[in-house]
Write a structure and sequence with these properties.
Number of strands: 16
Strand content: 5-15%
Number of helices: 20
Length: 462
């Protein structure tokens, strides 16, 4: 039996709705205003959807919806109002309201809408349970060499790694900051013939040019002030194993030539040295910048780029691999707790928030969020939305209530324009706003809009 939260400041309407829904075999939780509705929502995880009045004192229906969106991003919300207006309807549609019904309502129409909302709620519940179950899958079923990668967008990455790992060739990993490029590089090392050899990682952006050269290639005693003894560089230290150069785009041009010689001749020369030293390493590089663009700009050597990109692996951002969010969250819970302590579960509300958030900081940000939640749960056996950083809830508030809009910003349709034309114009504006928010990423925009990418393309071209 589904549970619905109904919210209305008029006692007689509240009683009427409660009676109708109970007769239709729904469990009903009534609330007389927005704050009490939010308290009920926090106390009852079993709530499936919400039916709320629009005009209420203190907190109106749109403001309530914005707060519900923070706690339960995918929960269907139906607005009920006696004050129908085109602008109010458009505000509701922009924010993702499930449906909008005017008072006085027809019982048949209301119940049809409620049952449609219930179907969506049950479908989302099944999807969420399946996602949580999938997150509990064994590492053998969901990982490649310890790398969690169950999302369809990660399968080309996994296939490339399987094919490339056994071969001693150079690999370039491309991806946004925080996507897990070092994890991919470690996977290559672990699956390759050099797995028993050393693994050496260097962040090229973390060291100034003189120090980076010395760290990479080593130096001889007296080569510069402070060089009191001969020192082996990290390239030598990686002999027989893998050298991972992160943020390779930050390497100065002067050092790029020396790295190119190392790759071509398989030898290096220490700073201040006269002899060439043979080396045998597998190089894996990573960049969050487009190296081809840097080559065109003259800040990265074309010959080095082609040496690095023998095989390129393009790692998708976390917002394009949402099926991995919950398995990654479970992994970070496991690794973030001391051994022997029971692992807390993710509540349904928390799981929904995690899967709806856009993760601009990618996997690294998700790890930080889980670390925050573990610190703030205070012994709770369940990680609740309240344990998450507040910025996640704030980012999910995609609707701006009319009361918060600047004066004069509400638009009205021209007197000579049809309703259909006006709505089409507003839809086009909204699509552009979502695309701008997603930096032009149509896959992410389609996910937010809950339409297919093909539908998004069609609507943009209309």
């Amino acid at each position: 039996m589904s549970t619905v939260l109904i919210v209305d400041d008029e006692a007689r309407i509240l009683m009427l709705l409660e009676s109708l829904l109970k007769s239709a075999k729904f469990d009903v939780l009534p609330a007389k205003d927005g704050p009490s509705a939010l308290q009920t929502l926090d106390e009852h995880a079993e709530i499936d959807f919400v039916l709320t009045d629009l005009r209420m004192p203190g907190m109106d229906g749109l403001e309530l919806f914005a707060e519900i969106r923070k706690r339960r991003p995918g929960m269907p919300v139906i607005l009920l109002t006696a004050y129908a207006s085109l602008e109010t309807a458009l505000d509701a549609m922009r924010g993702g309201i499930f449906d909008y019904i005017t008072k006085p309502f027809k019982v048949n129409e209301l119940m049809a809408t409620i049952r449609a909302a219930d179907r969506q709620a049950q479908s989302r519940k099944i999807q969420l349970v399946e996602a949580l179950d999938a997150a509990e899958a064994t590492p053998e079923a969901s990982a490649l060499g310890g790398m969690i990668a169950t999302a369809p967008t990660m399968q080309p990455v996994c296939e490339t790694l399987r094919k490339v790992a056994p071969h001693d060739i150079t690999v370039l990993i491309n991806g946004e900051s925080g996507t897990g490029k070092e994890v991919v590089a470690r996977t290559l090392h672990a699956l390759g013939p050099r797995a028993k050899g050393p693994w050496v990682a260097v962040n090229c952006a973390a060291l100034p040019e003189p120090l980076l050269e010395s760290e990479l290639f080593g130096h001889m005693k007296g080569a510069f002030t402070g060089a009191t003894a001969d020192k082996k560089g990290l390239v030598e230290a990686a002999n027989g194993g893998t050298l991972f150069l992160d943020e390779i785009s930050s390497m100065p041009l002067s050092l790029q030539g020396k790295l190119l010689r190392c790759l071509q001749e398989r030898e290096i020369r220490r700073v201040g040295g006269l002899q060439d030293i043979p080396v045998n390493v597998r190089l894996v590089a990573a960049s969050n910048a487009d190296l081809e663009q840097l080559v065109a700009a003259g800040t990265f050597r074309a010959d080095l780029y082609y040496r690095l990109a023998v095989v390129s692996v393009n790692l998708p951002p976390l917002r394009q691999r949402r099926e991995d969010i919950l398995p990654l969250a479970k992994h970070f819970i496991d690794t973030g707790l001391p051994k022997g302590l029971p692992r807390p579960a993710l509540s349904n509300g928390t799981a929904e928030i995690l899967t709806h958030y856009t993760w601009p900081g990618n996997v690294r940000e998700l790890e930080n969020v889980i670390t925050h939640a573990l610190a703030f749960r205070e012994g709770s056996e369940v990680i609740l939305p309240a344990h998450l950083p507040s910025k996640l809830a704030a980012a999910l508030s995609v609707i701006q209530p009319p009361s918060a809009q600047a004066p004069g910003t509400a638009s009205t349709p021209p007197a000579d324009e049809s309703l259909k034309g006006y709505l089409r114009q507003k839809e086009r504006e909204y699509l552009r706003q979502i695309l701008d928010r997603c930096n032009g990423d149509k896959t992410e925009a389609a996910h937010i809009l809950q339409v297919s990418v093909a539908t998004l393309y069609r609507k943009l071209s209309e």
